[in-house]
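Ticket #4471: structure output looks truncated?

Reporter: J.K.
Steps to reproduce: submitted the chain below (482 residues) through the standard prediction queue, then opened the result file.
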Amino acid sequence: MTRRWFGSVRSRATLAATLVVAVALLAAGAAVLLSLRSDLTGQAESEAASAARAVAVELSDGRPYDKLTGLDEDDRPVQIVDERGRVVAASEDLERVTGTGADIARPGDPGGRAGGDADDDADDSDDANGSDGPDDDPAPRGEVDSDTDFSTGTATIDGTTADYRFAAVEVEFEDRGKFTVYAGAPLAAERSAVGTATTAMLIGFPLLLAVVAGATWLVTRRALSPVEGIRREMAAITASEDLARRVPVPATHDEVARLALTTNETLAALESSVERQRRFVADASHELRSPIASLRTQLEVGAAHPELLDLDGAVTDTVRLQTLAADLLLLARLDAGERPGDARFDLGALAREHAEGRAGVTVTADEVPVAGSRAQVGRVLTNLLDNARRHARSAVTVGVRAEGEWAVVAVADDGDGVPEADREHIFERFVRLDEARSRDDGGAGLGLAIARDVAVRHGGTLTVGRAPAGGALFELRLPRAR
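Returned output as attached by the reporter:
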């Protein structure tokens, strides 16, 4: 069942379209999610950097920790860490934090370094707040670094833990060293948006793929329905052997319509070929029946009355039968696609050879080399000479010449010629004009058909026209050998 399903063009097209759309949707979905995450993360980084830089500017001005405005925001974790990793200030409600590099959340938290011993804490507190002694001299200003580093972590504020994007900005004092301000922006919006988009894709993509598969299945079914009609009609033609039937041609003017037209052309050619074959078999049977019946009659009479045996007539019928059998065999070989070969020979010498000994035949032949089957081309010359001698009043002329890329043989007689309307008809098999219907004087109507078939298979032509003397002029053209 699976093999049958995948053997259908419709199923393969549906599967291919669905896979292509699935890959496109996955790629588009991944791009959308990455772009959404990048945009929201960038927004969080911008918020965190703005908050961290605001606190860093206040710190660089020497403002005390308890006066820093950034530490008062309830929903934004802020830490200030010195260069030794000690937390010196933090948001008021910050309980736990990761991602800032400090191991405690606030100064004085247990389990961490809140600032060393009491003296160090006091000194650092005074230093950071810009108060050096009783003289109450103004605190020196610090320098805020222009670079901002980012990290991702978590923070717990008032018992609520969430993910944050932290920005780190350094502030350097000449006498007190470096301080790093960490400020975080929540990633809840990014997590929520990405989760919502992912859920929508997980629900929408399968539905969209189902729609694509269904639409492709229906469209492919509609597009291939004419092909199924052609297949059914071809199966019916094969079963009935009725080559007169034709497949339906859809009115779509597309590839399927052209396929139907080509199929009908093939059926027409096949029907014509089969009809020619039937006529050929019928005509061959008819032509063979006459000499066989005549020969049998003569032999039966000779057996009963030896003195009445017409030996010459029996020999004549036997020769006719032999010639007809040879013609039929040659036609069968030609129809089977027998290749003519590529032997080189002189066409002029071959023409003189076949004209030798024939009364009333004059030959003017140049030396013109051709390539092919010498025996088949000789058969063409014999057939043309026999036909010309049969219709000539007194003379037959044969000329062989080179004409450009062609070797031309012209066989002319001084008979009545061939009517223009019959000049193609005479090359059909078993065709004899009315004046040549006598089987005693004419052949079986295969000579000229064989001659043209041989000419065509040698890459040439055989035509008939009017001779200068008024009779028929047959011109055989063959490619010259190089």
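Triage note (M.O.): checked the attachment and the full token line is present. Residues 255-335 form a domain with the Helix Hairpins fold (CATH 1.10.287.130).
Status: closed, working as intended.
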